[in-house]
Amino acid sequence: MDEIEKRKKAREFAKQSLSKNKPLDWFEKLYTQAKEGMAIIPWADFEPNPNLVDWFEKNNFESRNKTALKIGCGLGDDAEFLSQKGFSVTAFDISQSAIEWAKERFENTKVNYIVADLFKIEESLKDRRFDFVVESYTLQVLPKKLRKEAVPIIANLVKKDGILLLITRARNENDDEGQMPWPLLKKEILEFEKHQLKIVSFEDYFDNEEPKVRRFRVVFRKI
Ligand SMILES: C[S@@+](CC[C@H](N)C(=O)[O-])C[C@H]1O[C@@H](n2cnc3c(N)ncnc32)[C@H](O)[C@@H]1O
Q1: Which of 199, 207, 107, 100 lies closest to 155 in space, CA to CA?
Q2: Which helix (DSSP H) or strand (DSSP E) does residue 90 occupy?
Q3: Structural domain boundaries of the chain?
Q4: Could you give the 3-state DSSP secondary structure of residue 53?
Q5: Spatial CB neighbours of 194, under 8 Å, sequence gap ≥ 6
Q6: pLDDT greater than 80 at residue 6
């Protein structure tokens, strides 16, 4: 199987899961097959997200003695980046294989990696709230209905006065939604404001990927 075929698998798996009305089933399947060399995880660059790194370069954010949560942490690069910044980090993913892989990659990690589903997160984190929550690229792989359901859940994970940093693909109302990963609309981002999150900054820009991708990078503060 060539590289192109391996790459196609993510979309095929997503499509199959959606057609069975089980939109969260394909992540584990993809990570398992990728570990066996039978698929490629399109988002795994084995380095922290450049849009996250760039945000920290531009913002003098004090991270010592603060807790951070990485949602949908995949193979752990963003979580490790946050840990290096000085946060005490918890990171979760629905895929057990992703979490095992992240722990293998970062043997001496300080990050608390857990297998958990965002939609059942209270079972895993009880009432824990975090100073800094990062959601990058998970919402965009969820269908619209689940994206909407995710908003209050994510908002609830942020402590009072804490920050939510959200990074996602972006589109306008009249743009075609295209294929997964689905770019989000501004109005979907504004939904967070209904849950005690106040927008501190809203960036709408094209990143440095080739070809360039339009992104929203939004900072909210919990009031
Ligand atoms: C597009 S990937 C992004 C991963 C990572 N943030 C990155 O940029 O490399 C989305 C991740 O979210 C995870 N995920 C999807 N739905 C989830 C859910 N309901 N709860 C927890 N993790 C989920 C997937 O397994 C996957 O690792």
Answers
A1: 199
A2: strand 88-93
A3: 1-42, 43-222
A4: helix
A5: 151
A6: no
Q: What is the pLDDT of residue 188?
A: 98
pLDDT for the residue numbered 8: 84
Going by C-alpha positions, the residue among 60, 76, 59, 47 that lies closest to residue 209 is 47
Cα–Cα distance for residue pair 195/165, rounded to 1 Å? 15
| pLDDT, tens digit, 9 for 90 and up, residues 58-75 | 999 999 999 999 999 999
Contact 165/135 with Cβ under 8 angstroms? yes
Mean pLDDT score across all residues of the chain = 95
205 beta partners: 215
For residue 184, the 8-state DSSP code is B
Ligand 1 centroid from CA 194, angstroms: 24
C-alpha distances out from residue 50 to 28, 37, 165, 181, Å:
25, 25, 14, 18
Q: Which CATH fold would you assign to the domain 43-222?
A: Rossmann fold (3.40.50)
Q: What angle do CA 21, 27, 30 make, to 5 degrees?
A: 120
- Ligand 1 binding pocket (C-beta < 6 A) is 24, 27, 43-44, 49, 72, 74, 78, 92-95, 98, 117-119, 136-138, 141
Per-residue pLDDT tens for 98-142?
Answer: 999 999 999 999 999 999 999 999 999 988 999 999 999 999 999
What single-letter DSSP state applies at residue 191? G
The pLDDT of residue 1 is above 70: no
Can you tell me the distance from the alpha carbon of 222 to that of 193, in angstroms, rounded to the nearest whole number? 9
Q: Report yes or no: 35 and 103 within 8 Å, Cβ to Cβ.
A: no
